[in-house]
Amino acid sequence: MSKIGITTTIPVEVIFAAGETPVDLNNIFITHPDPGEMVRNAEEKGLPRTLCSWVKGIFSAIIANPDIDTIIAVTEGDCTNTLAMLDLFRSKGIEVIPFAYPYNMNRDTLNENIRKLEAYFGVSRKQTLEMKTKLDGIREKALLIDRMTYEDNTISGLENHISLISLSDFEGDPDGYEKKLDLLISKAKSREPFRHATRIGFCGVPTIFSDLYGFLENNKARVVFNEMQRQFAMPYKTDNILDQYLNYTYPYSFKRRIKDTKEESQKRQLTGLIHYVQSFCHHQIHDRELRESADIPVLTLEGDKPEKLKERTRIRIESFLEMLSLGT
Ligand code: SF4
Description:
- By secondary structure, the chain is an alpha/beta fold.
- It has a domain at 3-126: Rossmann fold (3-Layer(aba) Sandwich), CATH 3.40.50.11890.
- 52% of the residues lie in helices and 15% in strands.
- It contains 15 helices and eight strands.
- The chain has helices at residues 12-17, 25-30, 35-44, 53-64, 82-91, 107-121, 125-152, 157-165, 174-189, 212-218, 227-231, 241-247, 254-267, 286-293, 311-326; strands at 3-6, 21-24, 68-76, 95-100, 198-204, 221-226, 272-278, 298-303.
- Helix 5 links the parallel strand 3 and strand 4.
- The structure holds iron/sulfur cluster.
- The site of iron/sulfur cluster has 9 residues, from helix 4.
- Iron/sulfur cluster binds at residues 52, 54-55, 79, 81, 205, 278, 281, 283.
């Protein structure tokens, strides 16, 4: 069994069906005891300061884990830096397997791209689908945690974030990960509901701030919708792999993410949205579109390096929450 590095959600069913272990490099980076050091290391090795810290963290994660000698790179439907990073990884002797989500959502093209992945790993479509059935059972549990976040109010925003985002690679061990979810579900069932008055939706890319969720909860607000992270749970019931990865909103047009956000804002009775954008990330372009489309107030926060919220950002969040509380 070997470790396959991934940089975002891909049809992970194929990797598990082949008996290999996917490892999300973002998670290695952000759960490192000192992610700031990983960014600095990447800069010392020549990556520019004006490059997204997540990319630098992924680069350092690869260097620090020589047992990951293959990565799957999403060349369409993810990060604009991926193609440049491919060359860099190849120059370090790492095998790169490209995978693309077709922007026009063409079913045949997606089918062909998944077939190529299956061919590389020697996996049949039947094996992929058998693995989908197993993983969907675990995704169901993560979606139950999501419901417990906004219906029962017994799961914190950070717990929700971690439970959903880890579905990109199931922490490399679907059975072990399922047990973790079971434990959280049973723990949360005996909790008193959280009583935060302000219900926040979190959109954009995952935040690099280490204390955002806790800071909100200390200020009478709780994240009850993590937009991108929820997509990692494949929240639309499907019986085939193509529908599954066509319904998944993240790689395609931002309009679908906005539609999803608006529907969930209503369903979860959100008071406001935080749109997190990363410095030097192309997704910043979407900020205006989201702000113009949202039915509720939006606060845009920008982060650069892995760190705690700075005083200025804390004040902006406090003012936003105060403004929301006046309207509730
Ligand atoms: S935050 Fe943006 S630039 Fe950074 S890795 Fe993600 S998609 Fe790429």
